[in-house]
Amino acid sequence: MTNEKIDWNLVICSLILIFSLIFTIFINADEITHKFKSPSFNGINTSSHYLTIENQEFNRKAAIKAEIKAYQEELERDAENTTLARFIRNLESRIYAQLSRQLVENLFGETKSESGSIELEGNTIEYSVDGDFITLKITDADGNETIITLPIGSFTF
Predict the structure, then answer these.
(1) Inter-CA distances, 140 with 70, 100, 135, 147, Å
(2) How far apart are CA 17 and CA 144, in angstroms?
(3) Rounded-to-5 percentages of helix, strand, coil across the chain
C-alpha cells in the first residue's frame, strides 16, 4: 500500500459534479403563467358561478326571514300564554256564556220578552220575537249588519 493522501476536496467536487449531471437530465421546466382561479376573472363557468352566488344570497335571505318570523311568532305565543292573558280569556269566556244564557232566558224562559238589545264591544245585538220566528240583528262598529232568522217551532227536543 502506498501512503498517498486523499484529496477530499477533489472527491467531493467530483461527486457533486456527477450528481448534478445525473439530475439535470430529469429536470423539465415550463413557462410560468398566472391563471385566475375565480370564474369572475377568467371567464370560465362564469354563469354557473354567478348562479351559485345568487342562490347562496337567496337562501341566506330566506333563512333570515324565516328566523325573524319564527321569533315574532314565539313572542306572540309568549304574550298569549302569560297568566294575565289566560285569566282575561277565561273571564271573557265566562262573561260571554252568561250573556248567552241571559239571552236564551229572555227568548225562551218563563218570562219571555218580545224584543231587546245589548251593546258588546262596539257591536249591537238586537233580537225580536214575532210568534213564529226569532230575528237576531247584529250590527258591527262599521255599520255592517248580519241578520239571523230562526223558526221557533224547530227548537223542540
Answers:
(1) 33, 18, 16, 12
(2) 108
(3) 55, 15, 25
Work out the pLDDT band at 3, boundaries 50, 70, 90: low
Q: Any residues with CB less than 8 A from the CB of 44 and at least 6 apart, and which? A: none
Question: In 3D, which of 138, 98, 143 has the Cα closest to residue 117?
Answer: 138
CA distances from 50 to 17, 86, 124, 128, 143 (A): 55, 52, 61, 71, 56
Q: What region does 118 belong to: left with phi over 0, alpha with psi -120 to 50, or beta?
A: beta
Q: Is the dihedral of CA 56, 60, 61, 66 positive or negative?
A: positive
Q: Is the pTM of this model over 0.85?
A: no
In DSSP notation, 80-125 reads HTSHHHHHHHHHHHHHHHHHHHHHHHHHHSSS--SEEEEEETTEEE
